[in-house]
Amino acid sequence: MNSNLFGDYQKLLHVDVMGQQVEVPENNTLLRGLQFHAPETISYGRFCWNGTCNNCTVTVNDSGCESKGRACRLAASDGMHVTSVSSEIRRLL
Ligand code: FES
Question: What's the CA-to-centroid distance between 46 and ligand 1, angstroms?
Answer without folding.
Answer: 9
